[in-house]
Every structure is written in structure tokens, then in C-alpha cells.
Amino acid sequence: MTSLVQILGSAARTGNSWTVTIPATWMQGRTSYGGLSSALAHHCAMASVEDCPPLRSAQIAFAGPLSGEVTITAELLRRGRNTAFVETRTTSSDGIGLACNFIFMNPRTSMVEHNGISAPDFPPPPDKADVRNGPPEFFTHHMDYPEKRLELGLGTPKLTQWHRLRESGGLDPITELLCVGDALPPSAMGLMTKPGNVSSMNWQVNMLTNAPQTQDGWWLLESETHHAHDGASSQYMTVYNSDKEPVMSAMQSVALFV
To answer: What element of type H or E holds 205?
Structure first.
């Protein structure tokens, strides 16, 4: 099993370009798992900026399939006193597969403090004996979670479940969170009554803390579809730590082929 730490360690850098191979065990159908692709792009974007501030926001477009050897290029668009804007592009033999804009920002003093995100009513992180993993040929093999991730025919637009990387030691916590944060199936699948293909198209991420922390690597993922029409759905996503504090909020557009 090739961990995310090992993949990052194998990346060959030339200037602000990195070449790395995506192992077959990190695939999601015919493309790399989106959380892995996003985490790799974030790692390279962060490495391209001297004294890089923590990530505040990201716009991630899943433009096409990625597999095998990929090249990630990073370009600093602007560096201000508190912020750095970095654009990355990830390409493979099939062309561009991922385009990202990352905003890194140092904390600043503000008179505005507000938290309107309520923690869901959900059990605590599972015990070691209650976790399972996905098959070796699928990205969920690299993760622990407590039960079946999706059951068709339940008629629910909302999915909530604990996930963690099986190997996360030595990872930047935000890189880890980006990798885990896309692990749930699109919540529109909870409305499906028969199997069908889906594909994430765009992911808007906002970090709610500069240094996310949790117990034993567990993150509570929540995703809720609030609109689906004409073969596309829009879903809200939130990630909580083991204390059920919100650490990341997001929104995703998903293509539906059923």
C-alpha cells in the first residue's frame, strides 16, 4: 500500500514543476481519487511559495481523468502582505485533468467573530474493532470508516460518516484534510434507486482553521445535496474534527449520468 506520504516523497521537482506517479490503488474508476489529486496540488502550491501562509480557500476543477505519471505545475499569481494566490495545473498523457486556484492567508485581527455551523448529531469516532476498508483496487483501501459508505434506495440527500487515512504520519494537516475531505460518495447518490455513474466537476473549499487537529486521525464528513436537475447536482459539504468542531466547509458540483 503506497501512502500519501510516500507519493509526496517520490515527487521529482524541477523548478515549480513536479512529476509523480499515481498508484493504481488510489484510483476512482478511470481517474485518480479527487481528494488525492487535490492534496498533491496543494502540496506543490504550498512548496512553490517561500514562507507560505496556511491555506484559506481553494477552487478545484476536475477537468478530466488523471492516471499514471502526472505533472503538476504551480504559478504564483500574486503575493501580498498577508495573502498568496497560486494557480496549479495537473496534466497526464490525456491532457489537463485538474486546475486549481489556492489562496493562502496569514491570520489577521478582526472585530468579526461568528460561527453559524451546527454540529450534526452523530456517534463518536469508532473503535478500532469497528472499522473497515475498501478493496485494494479502490482509493478507500487507504482509509478507515465504520460501515458501508452508501446504500441505494434510501431516498436521502444527506450522507454523514467518519473517515481517516490509514497512514497519515508526517503529513501537513491541511494536505491530509483535503485528501480525506472528498472521500464520501456524492450525496445525490443517496437519491438514486439503481447504480449509475457520477463525476465531481468542481470543488470550492474554505478552511475554517489554520491548523486543523483531531483525535486519532478521525474526521466527520457531511455532505448534503440541496439541488439536482438536468443531470447535475449541487451539494454542501462540511468536515468536523473529533470534538465536532467545523474545520472545513465546501460546495461541490456533480455530474449525474443516471
So the answer is: strand 198-207
Average pLDDT, whole number, for the chain?
94
- Identify which of 151, 189, 196, 11 has the alpha carbon closest to the alpha carbon of residue 88: 11
Distance of CA 67 to the CA centre of its chain: 17
- Give per-residue pLDDT as tens, 80-114: 999 999 999 999 999 999 999 999 999 999 999 99
- Write down the pTM of the prediction: 0.95
Provide mean pLDDT across the span 127-132: 88
Taking only the tens place, the pLDDT of each residue in 54-88 is 999 999 999 999 999 999 999 999 999 999 999 99
* The pLDDT of residue 120: 87
Write the CA distances from 224 to 114, 145, 187, 189, 252, integer angstroms. Answer: 22, 19, 6, 10, 10
SS3 179: helix
- Contact call for residues 47 and 103 (beta carbons, < 8 A): no
Rounded (10°) angle between helices 34-47 and 173-181 = 160
Radius of gyration for the alpha carbons in the chain, expressed in angstroms and rounded: 18
CB 244 within 8 A of CB 220: yes
Q: Where are the alpha helices (DSSP H) in the chain?
A: 4-10, 34-47, 173-181
Number of other CB atoms surrounding residue 81 within 10 Å: 6
Q: Which of 60, 56, 35 is nearest to 103 (CA)?
A: 56
By the 10 Å C-beta count (0-12 exposed, 13-18 middle, 19+ buried), 210 is classed as: middle
Q: Which three cell numbers stand for residue 135?
A: 478493496
Reduce the DSSP state of residue 119 to 3 states and report it: coil
Q: Reduced to 3 states, what is the DSSP secondary structure of residue 8?
A: helix
